[in-house]
Amino acid sequence: MIPLSAIASNPANGWLFGIAPSATWRMGNPENTHLSNLVGNLLYTTKKQLLISSRSNIFLADDSWILAIFPYISAIFRIRKFYPQFARRKPITTRRLAR
């Protein structure tokens, strides 16, 4: 596994800082099995966002199976401190729906 530092900038997120780990391995005979890989990133932005994503392609021996574990997971979590209306949201009940 190789963790690399990541720095970027764009108008939607501002500056982004974090890590982008990557791993590559082979799960069978090199003559008939492709390389497997896993790539991800964990970034924090100047607009108080946490960006997480990963993807992978895993080839079993003789390429008998190709697994796409976490084909694409991406989520944006804003710090609740800056968005308290989402942190204190009341659950919807049948009584509230009847009104």
How does this model look, in words?
This protein is mostly beta strands and 99 residues long. The chain has one domain. The chain is 9% helix and 51% strand. It has helices at 84-87, 94-98; strands at 2-10, 14-25, 36-45, 49-59, 66-67, 73-78. Strands 1, 2, 3, 4, 5 and 6 form a six-stranded antiparallel sheet that branches. Residues 71-83 have low confidence and may be disordered.
Short description:
The protein is mostly beta strands. Helix content is 9%, strand content 51%.
Helices and strands, with pairings:
Blueprint: E1 2-10, E2 14-25, E3 36-45, E4 49-59, E5 66-67, E6 73-78, H1 84-87, H2 94-98
Antiparallel strand pairs: 1-2, 2-3, 3-4, 4-5, 4-6
Which characteristics define this entry?
six-stranded antiparallel sheet; 6 strands; mainly beta; 2 helices; 99 residues
Specify the helix fraction band: under 10%
List the helices and strands in order: EEEEEEHH
Number of E strands: 6
* Cα-based radius of gyration, to the nearest Å: 20 Å
**Beta-strand content estimate:** over 45%
State the separation between the terminal residues, measured CA to CA: 55 Å
